[in-house]
């Protein structure tokens, strides 16, 4: 294909049929050429044999003498459409221009290949097309009403000697341009113009052919857009040799000018404001110049929005073209005159406020007696505002109960007074609001407590919702004109301004209630002066001197200020001179008595003296504490911790303030022995699995005692750290009766605790593990029998801790794993040898074929 490639010059296939007097454009193009992209063209003409030069794109002297005038006037010219295409344009072609036209292109190719010119035959025929209006009259004027029908006619005929087809188009002048309405094409097809497709499908516009080559445009229902000038545009077409259609000429004639009188629907009244219970009167006027017989259909609509699409509108009343009105009790529709229709709404209500629309349709009779709707219009909306009849009344708010202390009740009464102009269909409800006092210029916000709906349904606000649901805040209606707010237990957060709003509700025709008026009251301030609670507690020792075994007695007197009807709870505490292991802070809670006079033992753990302490209420503000059979271990500072309680909401008690009394000291002067405790171990460093021995040794100083007069409670503790920075862990204890108690352990080691002498106690840790390390110490509680035979408990004595270190025995740790490893290696080695021997003996043995040799000895020569 590339070898055969060459220049190609193309012109249309002939003959080209053109009408005399029209403009002719003959295209010529070139392709597959070399050289510059812009090519030059030469045109020549021949009637018979010789060609005459007409015009060239590159040589101005190319034109022959007989064509110079026409080329100079522009009657013949070249029009370039692209770099490789031009058109020969002949304006007002004549029969003398009939002949052959040749298009040539000068060569710009490296080699001469292809064709460099092409010819086309042009045939000029006479003008046989005639277009005229109806009966050959000039354009007429038609004045129509919206919805009328009209018809326009034009005549088109051709006497061309060639076989041509006509293309008829009806057009309307829209502004300065003509717009297609409907066409009958040269192929016999109907083609509606842009925007007329729906009307053509519905049959509103038609194009019919009649006798004498007439073409009739029919419009069955004229609209306002159909006004304007109408013309009939006719073009003549001929089919070429290649089967394509070519338009050879076009003519038009203006037929008529049509004016459409628009039908308008107007509500005579503009925006309306009426008072509730009055009547609303609206008139709908239909503007039309229609003189024939017609009937109007009228519909009245109501909508809450001014949307004229009536998508959410409500149909109020309608009157059809037979003057039949739909039924309604309070709304009537009447025909005032030929083009006016009146809507009357009696006893209007507030809910009648909104937008009113009037929709009208014009109906005309047909020849068969039926009615046909020709036009429909909707008026602009009219705004109607119905002013409610507001009742006249005042609102008064007063406080029947005001608090003087916290948790006192508060009651507010909201009363309706001076009621005037009220009817039976008026109802009152209340809303309660709270306003907090803010310092400075801060904005004060109102908070809704609760409100009542038209049916007296209580709607809660965000403030105090939980308290209202719990019944701490109560809303009620005492009478027809009085509403009440009661706070059962007023707190400091309730201080502020309160006001109420009385709402008047009006009942409408549909028995619904609509709020018509709100009247607020003046505010009432709820406030009481608050002072800090004051509580004073004084402790007094009743017996200044006593010895061990006697009864200790002290009283606590309480006084308070600014507390409403207080009650007191009392707690007796003791601060021992030596720290008790169960109370690391040194303070022991002994016994308490709450505000309801219920006594409770707190941290009193002496089982032998369960009834040895008593706390009782002597008076409302005086309490007495007794401790029987005191012991030396009871020495310390004793105090009364008092809490004042005031009545709270819901019958509960609220803690007001705490007070602490002065200390009362119990101090025993004794001349008995002094006990010391120490911890000793022969081997503080041991290996895992060994036994650790720890000795707790008690020594005495001063007055000697018989062993039977001494007894000890011994407890062993451990701190699992190098420093004493963790909580001690109780390991085991031995009481003075010889009962051993062990704490629960997690490891595999075990403990034993025994008394090996009157003053020595041994703790053994069997099978020590690494977690048994740490500081170990003992705490001893001595018991001494007095001369009267009573056992007295001495203060606890804590020994200095000793650090127990647990090491790992490397030999023992690796002995068993090493033996197991050697044994497994030996077994695996023997097994491997056995497998190898068996494999070589039976599985992998090969038979070797050897050459058999004769084993004969040589004979000696003598033997031979």
UniProtKB/TrEMBL annotation:
Signal peptide: none
Membrane-traversing stretches: 816-837
Pfam families in the record: V-set
Cellular location(s): Membrane
Keyword terms of this UniProt record: Disulfide bond, Immunoglobulin domain, Membrane, Repeat, Signal, Transmembrane, Transmembrane helix
Top-level taxon in the UniProt lineage: Eukaryota
Record-level GO cellular component terms: membrane
Domain Ig-like: 21-113, 146-254, 263-360, 391-520, 673-781
Membrane topology: Single-pass membrane protein
Protein name: FPRP regulator
Organism: Machaerirhynchus nigripectus
Upper classification of the organism: Eukaryota, Metazoa, Chordata, Craniata, Vertebrata
């Amino acid at each position: 294909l590339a070898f055969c490639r060459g220049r190609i010059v193309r012109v249309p296939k002939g003959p080209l049929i053109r009408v005399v007097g029209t403009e002719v454009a003959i295209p010529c193009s070139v392709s597959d050429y070399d050289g510059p992209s812009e090519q030059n063209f030469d045109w020549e003409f021949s009637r018979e044999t010789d060609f005459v030069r007409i015009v060239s794109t590159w040589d101005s002297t190319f034109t022959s003498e007989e064509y110079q005038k026409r080329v100079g006037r522009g009657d013949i010219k070249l029009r370039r459409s692209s770099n490789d295409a031009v058109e020969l344009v002949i304006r007002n072609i004549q029969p003398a221009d009939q002949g052959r036209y040749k298009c040539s292109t000068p060569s710009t190719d490296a080699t001469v290949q292809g064709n460099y010119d092409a010819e086309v035959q042009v045939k000029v025929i006479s003008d046989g097309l005639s277009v005229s209006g109806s009966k050959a009259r000039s354009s007429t004027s038609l004045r129509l009403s919206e919805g009328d029908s009209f018809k326009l006619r034009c005549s088109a005929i051709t006497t061309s000697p060639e076989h041509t087809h006509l293309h008829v188009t009806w057009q309307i002048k829209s502004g300065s341009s003509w717009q297609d309405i409907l066409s009958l094409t040269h192929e016999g097809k109907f083609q509606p113009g842009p925007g007329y497709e729906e009307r053509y499908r519905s049959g509103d516009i038609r194009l019919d052919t009649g006798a004498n080559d007439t073409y009739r445009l029919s419009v069955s229902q004229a609209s306002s857009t159909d006004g304007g000038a109408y013309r009939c545009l006719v073009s003549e077409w001929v089919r070429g040799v290649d089967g394509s259609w070519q338009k050879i000429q076009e003519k038009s004639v203006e037929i008529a000018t049509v004016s459409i009188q628009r039908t308008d629907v107007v509500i005579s009244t503009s925006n309306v404001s009426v008072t509730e219970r009055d009547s609303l009167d609206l008139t709908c006027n239909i503007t039309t110049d229609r003189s024939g017989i017609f009937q109007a259909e009228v519909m009245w609509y109501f909508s809450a929005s001014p949307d004229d699409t009536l998508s959410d509108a409500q149909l109020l009343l309608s009157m059809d073209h037979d003057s039949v009105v739909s039924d309604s009790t309070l709304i009537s529709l009447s025909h005032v005159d030929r083009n006016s229709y009146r809507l009357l709404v009696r006893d209007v209500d507030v809910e009648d406020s909104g937008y009113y629309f009037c929709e009208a349709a014009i109906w005309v009779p047909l020849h068969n007696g039926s009615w046909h709707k020709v036009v429909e219009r909707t008026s602009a909306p009219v705004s109607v505002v119905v002013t409610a009849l507001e009742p006249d009344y005042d609102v008064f708010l007063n406080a029947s109960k005001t608090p003087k202390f916290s948790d006192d009740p508060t009651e507010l009464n909201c009363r309706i007074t001076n009621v005037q102009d009220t009817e039976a269909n008026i109802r009152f409800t209340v809303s309660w609001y709270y306003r907090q006092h803010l310092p400075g210029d801060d904005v004060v916000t109102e908070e809704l407590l609760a409100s009542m709906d038209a049916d007296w349904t209580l709607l809660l606000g965000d403030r105090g919702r939980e308290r209202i649901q719990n019944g701490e805040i109560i809303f009620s209606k005492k009478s027809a004109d009085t509403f009440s707010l009661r706070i059962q237990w007023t707190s400091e957060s309730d201080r502020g301004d309160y006001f109420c709003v009385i709402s008047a509700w009006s009942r409408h025709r549909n028995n619904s209630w609509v709020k018509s008026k709100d009247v607020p009251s003046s505010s009432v301030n709820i406030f009481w002066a608050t002072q800090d609670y004051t509580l004073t507690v004084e402790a007094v020792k009743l017996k200044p001197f006593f010895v061990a075994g006697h009864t200790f007695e002290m009283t606590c007197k309480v006084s308070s200020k600014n507390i409403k009807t207080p009650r007191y709870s009392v707690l007796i505490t003791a601060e021992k001179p030596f720290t008790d292991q169960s109370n690391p802070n040194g303070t022991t809670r002994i016994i308490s008595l709450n505000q309801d006079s219920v006594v409770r033992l707190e941290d009193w753990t002496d089982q032998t003296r369960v009834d040895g302490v008593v706390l009782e209420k002597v008076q409302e503000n005086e309490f007495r504490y007794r401790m029987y059979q005191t012991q030396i271990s009871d020495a310390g500072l004793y105090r009364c911790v008092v809490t004042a309680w005031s009545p709270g909401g819901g019958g509960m008690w609220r803690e007001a303030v705490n007070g602490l009394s002065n200390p009362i000291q119990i101090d025993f002067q004794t001349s008995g022995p002094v006990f010391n405790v120490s911890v000793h171990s022969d081997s503080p460093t041991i290996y895992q699995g060994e036994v650790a021995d720890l000795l707790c040794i008690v020594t005495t100083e001063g007055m000697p005692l018989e062993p039977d007069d001494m007894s000890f409670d011994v407890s062993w503790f451990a701190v699992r750290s190098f420093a004493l920075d963790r909580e001690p862990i109780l390991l085991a204890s031995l009481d003075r009766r010889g009962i051993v108690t062990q704490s629960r352990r997690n490891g595999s080691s075990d403990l034993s605790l025994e008394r090996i002498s009157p003053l020595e106690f041994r703790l053994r840790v069997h099978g020590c593990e690494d977690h048994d390390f740490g500081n170990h110490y003992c705490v001893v509680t001595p018991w001494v029998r007095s001369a009267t035979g009573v056992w007295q408990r001495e203060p606890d004595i804590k020994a200095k801790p000793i650090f127990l270190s647990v090491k790992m025995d490397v030999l023992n740790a690796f002995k068993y794993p090493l033996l197991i490893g050697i044994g497994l290696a030996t077994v695996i080695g023997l097994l491997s040898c056995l497998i190898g021997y068996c494999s070589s003996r039976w599985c992998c043995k090969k038979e070797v074929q050897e050459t058999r040799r004769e084993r004969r000895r040589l004979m000696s020569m003598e033997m031979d």
